[in-house]
Design goal:
Strand content: 25-35%
Shape: globular
Strand order of the largest sheet: 1-7-8-5-2-6
Oligomer: single chain
Distance between the termini: 26 Å
Helix content: 25-40%
Number of helices: 4
Number of strands: 9
Structural class: alpha+beta
Order of helices and strands: EEHEEEHEHEEEH
Length: 110
């Protein structure tokens, strides 16, 4: 997986945003309560935050319920973001190395 280094990349988390949902959505949690492998949608590097790119990114998200932020806010909390495209979803990525509380606050602050 390739790490996101552009702070302007748009990060979208699908579904109802709660701390429990973030914890449940993590592939693993370490002894410091840092989450690893939380699925997100990521804009391509250099893409502008606009209605067109957001609409494209949220297509795979059921019920069009989502929260969004920019990568820089996650990175400022020590989080790591990786592009992890999957079949049928080139925008898929993962967030790691951040607590559920910090990730929740970052999404809710936008």
């Amino acid at each position: 997986m390739k790490e996101v280094v552009d702070g302007q990349v748009v990060v979208i988390r699908g579904g109802e945003l709660t701390i429990k949902a973030l914890i449940d959505g993590a592939e693993s949690i370490d002894t410091r309560d840092l989450l690893y492998g939380v699925s997100v949608q990521l804009s391509p590097k250099g893409a502008k935050r606009d209605a067109k790119i957001i609409a494209e990114m949220v297509k795979p998200i059921p019920n069009n319920v989502y929260s969004d932020t920019n990568a820089k806010y996650i990175m400022n909390k020590g989080g790591k973001i990786y592009y992890d495209p999957i079949k049928g979803n080139p925008y898929h990525g993962k967030v790691s190395n951040i607590t559920a509380e910090d990730l929740f606050k970052v999404f809710k602050s936008m």
